[in-house]
């Protein structure tokens, strides 16, 4: 039987696949073709008709926040859910565009919206890696997704994206598409678009970013949270370096540019420090005014509001107010820790306890929260929110020495677990401070047109958003006296007129005790109006008002200076500032002195534009010499400035001499029981008012006056605001005549109609001449009735200043009075 051998392996015919495999591949291709065709039919029939209109990008108007600027183009603040600044493509630096193209879509200008080469490359890379590691979305597809679609990963959404990308490519140019992308993409920290991101992360305009900064910004679109240079600086740096390498590989930069950018050290802004100027009260005022006109569009239409505020002056005002308040607070002692908690011995639990208590006590600018971990009479160790440990010792503990004593009350004692406030002094040494309870405000106005140069409505907006500049109606105290004397000038008074500083009593009403106003100093007898204003003497102001008549004075003051008639009482205490005003209104009133007698209206917004720069509105202020009404004779303004310069140089405002100018004028004010401290003053180019007090009125202290409370803030601010401003020497206007160095109206001179004295008898003059102090004086003649139960009001003056040229001493005043009586005046 023949052997049966098995056949050898079948020989495969060259050039042909196994029929089964070939059949499988053929069927697969056919299936894919059919599926593709069905997708195309589905897309054309069901998706294409439903594609959204391209109006959103052909007429691109994204949500852009309200943005507020200073007059010198410094960004003060923003309001809106999305931070975005619209920029044209031509205004975007080439490095910024190239960085984005290199990492997101370097073939952007070659493909038609769908980069098939890019898709193939991404698929190949994904197959090699065994995972979906590369995407293939073009910039056009990202625009379609970001503007119109969600980020869900479904086939239908991808089809929408592809079809929309094709539609966008047919409707817009490449440059238009890239411009939309650069303005629309989300980049973290509520920033949309690269212009907003440049300001958010680096605090600069997009046109000013460096190549290294552009590369870091370009890394954000992929994952804003993962590559955020504030939150994840290390990962952001790694991606930045990769983008720089990518720019080099595709030829967008040279090797030298790469080397320089790769080594550049970037300075990223800290959280919460986006704005370089503290203008929170200004921003809120602007927001309210814009909202009143534009309602909800305020936060989405990209309005740019240009204020009259000067950035440097605003920051100087903010710092001056904070320093003045902190100085006052330090004078009045330490009140104790804000809170004291138990600190566990376990390190992790202790750290958690510190974090918990910190959450309830946020930092306040440079005033930081700290938890004490060790305390003794000579040293305190504490931990900051950042986790950094600090040590406080030596003179820095003097302020809290009593709180470190074993005898300290529990609520005041500093011990481990106490939450305290710390800040660094000029030498970077840590010291314990406290958040103040007192408030202060400052407003500075240009007298020639009313533009507000600086406005600080309180110590800290986040702590108290009540705007004391516009909302706090308080008694002005002795800052009101100049308006009384201004009215008196029109009734024949002059700086050399003599008024008796002596006790006086006015009937108050049936069954009520007489009103007997007081001064801080012992009555000094007859003195000139100049001396009385320098020393802020109450009794002289009251006698002057009584002489000219309360109804006349009220009408003159309200009509001339713009005070609300219903807030100026028709009683003699008006002379002591018993009415009500606010710092903004008072600044406008003092502007009349400063500008030569014109009424101006303070204003804050100079113009408003839309997101593309089109002007929507523009201020039309009343300007001296062009629309501002004259409300007072120029000679009255000159005379009052002459008097108020005496106050600033030799009277209660003498601290202003520290600025080193002779063209400053102003007046201190302290209300009854020191509830309010004021200083209102001006130079020709700025009228500035400062106030200090408690929201719930209470005494600021028995030894506190406007000269100690408000004037230091005023001088700190004005010294910076007037730096470089030339000295102004006011020319003598028509209608003024000088006699013995004193100014007079030419129709009210010692020989013709001048009110030479008020309330002065021959006995008073002789007594004063020989240095005697009169014990009493007759009640004032009629001319005004005191306010029922009106309290005495403090003058707000420190010890009397020495006499000066033009400010006659009492004995000299008496001599002049005797001469006038012999002449029949």
Automatic annotation (TrEMBL):
Gene3D superfamilies: Biosynthetic peptidoglycan transglycosylase-like, DD-peptidase/beta-lactamase superfamily. Residues 334-438 form the Penicillin-binding protein OB-like domain. InterPro entries: Beta-lactam/transpept-like, Glyco_trans_51, Glycosyltr_51/Transpeptidase, Lysozyme-like_dom_sf, PBP_transglycosylase, PCB_OB, PCN-bd_Tpept. Residues 443-697 form the Penicillin-binding protein transpeptidase domain. Keywords: Antibiotic resistance, Carboxypeptidase, Cell inner membrane, Cell membrane, Cell shape, Cell wall biogenesis/degradation, Glycosyltransferase, Hydrolase, Membrane, Multifunctional enzyme, Peptidoglycan synthesis, Protease, Signal-anchor, Transferase, Transmembrane, Transmembrane helix. Residues 75-247 form the Glycosyl transferase family domain. It catalyses: Preferential cleavage: (Ac)2-L-Lys-D-Ala-|-D-Ala. Also transpeptidation of peptidyl-alanyl moieties that are N-acyl substituents of D-alanine; [GlcNAc-(1->4)-Mur2Ac(oyl-L-Ala-gamma-D-Glu-L-Lys-D-Ala-D-Ala)](n)-di-trans,octa-cis-undecaprenyl diphosphate + beta-D-GlcNAc-(1->4)-Mur2Ac(oyl-L-Ala-gamma-D-Glu-L-Lys-D-Ala-D-Ala)-di-trans,octa-cis-undecaprenyl diphosphate = [GlcNAc-(1->4)-Mur2Ac(oyl-L-Ala-gamma-D-Glu-L-Lys-D-Ala-D-Ala)](n+1)-di-trans,octa-cis-undecaprenyl diphosphate + di-trans,octa-cis-undecaprenyl diphosphate + H(+). The keyword Hydrolase applies. Residues 774-825 are annotated as: Disordered. Residues 774-796 have a biased composition (Low complexity). This is Penicillin-binding protein 1A. It comes from Herbaspirillum robiniae. The lineage of its organism: Bacteria, Pseudomonadati, Pseudomonadota, Betaproteobacteria, Burkholderiales.
